[in-house]
Amino acid sequence: MPFHRTTAGAFWTSRATRNIHTQGYTYPELFNNPSNATLIANIKAQYSGPSNVLVTSMKPQIIAKQCSNTTAQEKTLYFAEVQLPMYGLDNGKGGSLGYSVLVFVGNVNDDARKWSTSESLVGTAASLGGVHMQSDQIVTSTIDLSLALEKAVAAGKTTMEKAGEYLRGNVKYRVGLVSLP
Amino acid sequence: MWADIEKGGKEIRRSAVANLRVRLISTRVEMAQSEEEFDRWVGGFVQLGVVEC
């Protein structure tokens, strides 16, 4: 980190580093300080799919239309928040094995080997472990439940009005040992 | 390989990881009104429950 702005020892300030170009950093979409409209067009051009496919928040729009307790301009998003201790599991040899927390909406197969291909799997948070890594530091990971909820509504399993109740009864998680092939 | 690392494959006891917690939360956002805008957070996070293993 270049703390000094000059060879004489003057420090960088928040004002002086406001523009990342000053230190030689930029992103392609930010080059030449484009307008907001140009910036969005650049992002879509570089990171989205085919140009004939609109980049929209289709999934949330559907949810909002179906959700009677929202106004036309607002919607509710649902997440599973995993508070994950960055903790390695002691293997008895001084090493620590990582673990994964897998979040599901719906049924969970009894066979852990089938979890990764399960349709009910909505996301994973993982600790990689490491030698002598026995920290209890907590890392928070959020997993978006919107798509699973939309599927459940489309399948007639629930409604957006009862989304919270449905998720309370159907969001589950399992803890799996990290496996190296 | 990384997919295997993240997805596990062998279940371990929940009790093997102290302080692990999963919460169900929700929040409100104001929807973007055009393609040139993004959704905007308008509410805090609300806890709907603690997820059981």
How would you describe what is shown here?
With 181 residues, chain A is an alpha+beta fold. Chain A has two domains: 1-55, no CATH class; 71-177, Hemocyanin, Chain: A, domain 2 (Sandwich). In chain A, 21% of the residues lie in helices and 29% in strands. In chain A, strands 2, 3, 4 and 6 form a four-stranded antiparallel beta sheet that branches. Chain A has a two-stranded antiparallel sheet with strand order 1-5. Chain A is flat and about 65 Å long. The two termini of chain A are 37 Å apart. Mean pLDDT of chain A is 79; it is low at 57-68. Chain B is mainly beta. Chain B has a domain at 19-53. In chain B, 11% of the residues lie in helices and 36% in strands. Chain B contains one helix and four strands. Chain B has a three-stranded antiparallel beta sheet with strand order 3-2-4, with no helix packed on it. The longest helix of chain B is centred in the first third of the chain and has 6 residues, at 2-7. Chain B is elongated, with a radius of gyration of 18 Å. Chain B starts with a helix and ends with a strand. Chains A and B meet through helix 1, helix 2, strand 1, strand 3 and strand 4 of A and helix 1, strand 1 and strand 2 of B.
Would you kindly provide a brief summary of this structure?
The complex is a heterodimer of chains A (181) and B (53). With 181 residues, chain A is α+β, with helices and mostly antiparallel strands.
